[in-house]
């Protein structure tokens, strides 16, 4: 009776395919194998029979008769995919309604069909040794190998003073066998006693609690909050130390690993060595080394982007998500998942604590704390007596900038005073380029993207208009494309480039540095910019949201927010929460050392609850307000939400498909479908998009409802080929 094995391939198929297991292979779940698929050799993973959890498996196809199955070609050398990672892949697939193979692909990024060349050497096989000793040459070879260390042929021949032929013949006779030669461990073991911080009593008690949780080896989610600069990082480094001491591995997720130079330095200062790093731009060789080290337990600490969740930790003992409120944790293309939420799942499968860290926790996490699902640990004050910055709003109606300018006289004065005192100032505007809109003064035409519902953004340094959604670029036109008027096109509104131009005119002697993703294209340039600021080679920093990351600039005492209202427009229910989090984070860059900090918010709506919360530094009350607004309508986190994004090549096809989906929408107690309506970007990359939102009560699982809904729709409506429906469970905008 031939044995079938399910093999999951890293492609968007509905589930694993069956193959025949050749008797000599003895395959186990998790083994990485080479299998034939459409006459090509593909990598796959031997999967478990059980398949998807909790009845979420989609209807499986009838089994293929055994005589039609193809055999597995080979098992790849190297470590298998551990069980917890396989369970995690299944879980993410089921939760996000993604094909499991697509999720597996994220766990297989370090693999390729080309076999890895692992250096091998000879060791004693342990058999027939009496025979071997018959000749002195063979005896010398065995004596050299007595220490068990594998040696390549040439080295062994030299040491045993025999010819290479003797060794090869011993191999052929089965007296010797090949074994991989150990490579030096790629990551040094962090030294937990290298330079432990002298923690404050509050920090120490939080660190102790975290350490106990690590040693308990139980799943426990916990929110670690505390104002910016209170030492959250310093404290959770101690939890990592406890995890290393316990012999397990720790995973730290950062929202933007490319902008983490200061974090890595702090880690090195604390532990005397760098951790393993994981992100999508890692070179393929480094990726393989890191994957293998994680899998062998030789990478005690991994710091990475969201994809690090899919590494093969054999013994994960701690998961940390820093800046847990960051939207960068949401992956929007391919498998749509929220790395913060999936990190909690990963920790649960590993029986480890999950620590979510933020000065401005998301409403979801606060709700979980309130419900008693998450523990709550708080650091109460800034470290070393540093005070929180004072925040005030500048009412732009009262203190308007000069015509055609964007900085209020009050902000200019404060920046000048700061720099005169030998301190540093920062201007924050979350908008790249020169101007977000180009308008014709003659006919009123606004230049928009040919592929998207979006205005083109002028990038003056590059002499281009760019779409920030699809990447379309064109030269800045001389004539209005609509009415042909000459010299009539005017930039409207500011981007960082324009603020920089204004700042250079206003502060001609200041040393200015611009931090935006297009001026700092890689981790190296970002790290260098950060070093220059920290070393006080810069007086004035102007930047986009890059500057809001967890930087520690001791000389920075003034933060000016150029347009605090930006981000509050539009119909997104979450806009206020996100704006408060971002601005609080930017504000937190000011006054982190001895000199007190000051934050000025330029706003046309100083009475807005967001501005009030920032000025009063009362994040808690603001979130309660938000909660009160969302609760009655069952908006997240008080209900569940899933979005269906319907896209098609034409508006007619998109409407047709979206309306058909609307007609077979699920009904039931506590189930509600909103839409179809134009999606937030109604046209993106030439695709017309509509959105339907499914909203349910919190205790309802949305996945079975969605599966049924999509099934109904496919049954009843034939759709043009160009129609695609993307599912987004827990969308971050609504
Ligand atoms: P957070 O993560 O809460 O923003 P950090 O951990 O970055 O705070 O701490 C802010 C600054 O204070 C950092 O420069 C950090 O090294 C320093 N710091 C915090 N706690 C201590 C401590 N116990 N001893 C020495 N330095 C500390
Ligand atoms: Zn576009």
From TrEMBL:
Initiates the restart of stalled replication forks, which reloads the replicative helicase on sites other than the origin of replication. Recognizes and binds to abandoned replication forks and remodels them to uncover a helicase loading site. Promotes assembly of the primosome at these replication forks. It catalyses: Couples ATP hydrolysis with the unwinding of duplex DNA by translocating in the 3'-5' direction; ATP + H2O = ADP + phosphate + H(+). Component of the replication restart primosome. Zn(2+) 1 binds at residues 440, 443, 480, 483. The gene is priA. Keywords: ATP-binding, DNA replication, DNA-binding, Helicase, Hydrolase, Isomerase, Metal-binding, Nucleotide-binding, Primosome, Zinc. It comes from the Bacteria. Its cofactor is Zn(2+). Zn(2+) 2 binds at residues 449, 452, 467, 470. HAMAP family: PriA (MF_00983). It holds the Pfam family DEAD. This is Replication restart protein PriA. Binds 2 zinc ions per subunit. Residues 213-379 form the Helicase ATP-binding domain. Belongs to the helicase family. PriA subfamily. It comes from Endosaccharibacter trunci. Its EC number is 5.6.2.4. One of its GO terms (molecular function) is hydrolase activity. InterPro entries: DEAD/DEAH_box_helicase_dom (IPR011545), Helicase_ATP-bd (IPR014001), P-loop_NTPase (IPR027417), PriA (IPR005259), PriA_3primeBD (IPR041222), PriA_3primeBD_sf (IPR042115), PriA_C (IPR041236), PriA_CRR (IPR040498).
């Amino acid at each position: 009776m031939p044995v079938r094995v399910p093999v999951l391939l890293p492609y968007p198929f509905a589930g694993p395919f069956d193959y025949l297991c050749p008797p000599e292979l003895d395959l186990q779940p998790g083994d990485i194998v080479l299998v034939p698929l459409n006459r090509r050799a593909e990598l796959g993973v031997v999967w478990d029979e059980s398949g998807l959890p909790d009845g979420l498996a989609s209807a499986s196809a009838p089994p293929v008769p055994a005589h039609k199955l193809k055999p597995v070609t080979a098992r790849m050398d190297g470590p298998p995919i551990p069980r917890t990672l396989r369970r995690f892949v299944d879980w993410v697939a089921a939760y996000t309604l993604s094909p499991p193979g697509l999720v597996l692909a994220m766990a297989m990024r370090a693999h390729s069909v080309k076999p890895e060349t692992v250096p091998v050497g000879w060791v004693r096989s342990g058999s027939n040794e009496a025979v071997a000793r018959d000749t002195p040459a063979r005896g010398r070879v065995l004596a050299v190998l007595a220490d068990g260390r594998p040696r390549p042929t040439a080295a062994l021949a030299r040491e045993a003073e025999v010819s290479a032929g003797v060794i090869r013949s011993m191999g052929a006779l089965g007296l010797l066998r090949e074994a991989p030669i150990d490579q030096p461990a790629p990551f040094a073991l962090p030294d937990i006693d290298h330079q432990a911080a002298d923690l404050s009593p509050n920090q120490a008690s939080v660190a102790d609690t975290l350490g106990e949780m690590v040693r308990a080896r139980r799943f426990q989610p916990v929110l670690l909050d505390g104002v910016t600069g209170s030492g959250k990082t310093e404290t959770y480094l101690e939890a990592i130390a406890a995890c290393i001491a316990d012999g397990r591995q720790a995973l730290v997720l950062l929202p933007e690993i490319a902008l983490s130079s200061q974090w890595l330095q702090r880690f090195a200062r604390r532990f005397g060595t760098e951790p393993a790093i994981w992100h999508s731009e890692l070179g393929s060789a480094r990726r393989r080394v890191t994957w293998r080290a994680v899998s062998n337990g030789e990478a005690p600490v991994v710091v990475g982007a969201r994809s690090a969740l899919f590494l093969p930790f054999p013994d994960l003992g701690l998961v940390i998500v820093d800046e847990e409120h960051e939207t960068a944790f949401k992956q929007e293309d391919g498998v749509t998942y929220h790395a913060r939420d999936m990190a909690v799942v990963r920790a649960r499968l590993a029986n480890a604590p999950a620590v979510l860290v933020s000065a401005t926790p998301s409403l979801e996490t606060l709700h979980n704390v309130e419900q008693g699902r998450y523990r709550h640990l708080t650091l109460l004050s800034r470290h070393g007596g540093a005070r929180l910055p004072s925040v005030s709003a500048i009412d732009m109606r009262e203190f308007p900038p000069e015509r055609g300018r964007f900085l209020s006289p009050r902000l200019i004065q404060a920046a000048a005073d700061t720099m005169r005192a030998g301190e540093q100032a920062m201007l924050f505007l979350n908008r790249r380029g020169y101007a977000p809109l180009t308008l014709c003064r003659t006919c009123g035409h606004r230049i928009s993207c040919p592929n998207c519902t979006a205005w083109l953004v002028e990038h003056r340094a590059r002499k281009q208009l760019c779409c920030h959604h699809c990447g379309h670029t064109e030269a800045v036109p001389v004539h209005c494309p609509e009415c042909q008027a000459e010299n009539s096109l005017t930039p409207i509104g500011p981007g960082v480039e324009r603020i920089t131009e204004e700042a250079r005119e206003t502060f001609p002697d200041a040393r200015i540095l611009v931090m935006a993703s297009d001026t700092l294209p890689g981790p190296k340039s970002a790290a260098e910019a950060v070093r220059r600021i920290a070393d006080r080679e810069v007086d004035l920093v102007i930047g986009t949201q890059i500057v809001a990351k967890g930087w520690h600039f001791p000389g920075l005492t003034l933060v000016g927010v150029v347009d605090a209202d930006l981000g509050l427009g539009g119909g997104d229910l979450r806009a206020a929460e996100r704006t408060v989090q971002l601005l609080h984070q930017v504000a937190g860059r000011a006054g982190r050392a001895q000199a007190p900090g000051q934050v000025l918010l330029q706003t046309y709506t100083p009475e807005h609850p967001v501005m009030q919360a920032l000025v009063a530094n009362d994040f808690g009350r603001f979130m309660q307000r938000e909660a009160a607004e969302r609760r009655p309508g069952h908006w997240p986190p008080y209900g569940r939400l899933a979005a269906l994004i319907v896209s098609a090549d034409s508006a007619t096809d998109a409407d047709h498909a979206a309306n058909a989906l609307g007609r077979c929408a699920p009904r039931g107690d506590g189930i509600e479908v909103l839409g179809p309506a134009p999606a937030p970007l109604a046209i993106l990359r030439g695709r017309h998009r509509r959105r339907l939102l499914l909203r349910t009560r919190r205790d309802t699982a949305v996945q079975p409802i969605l599966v049924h809904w999509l099934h109904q729709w496919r049954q009843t409506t034939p759709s043009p080929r160009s129609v695609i429906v993307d599912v987004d469970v827990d969308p971050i905008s609504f």
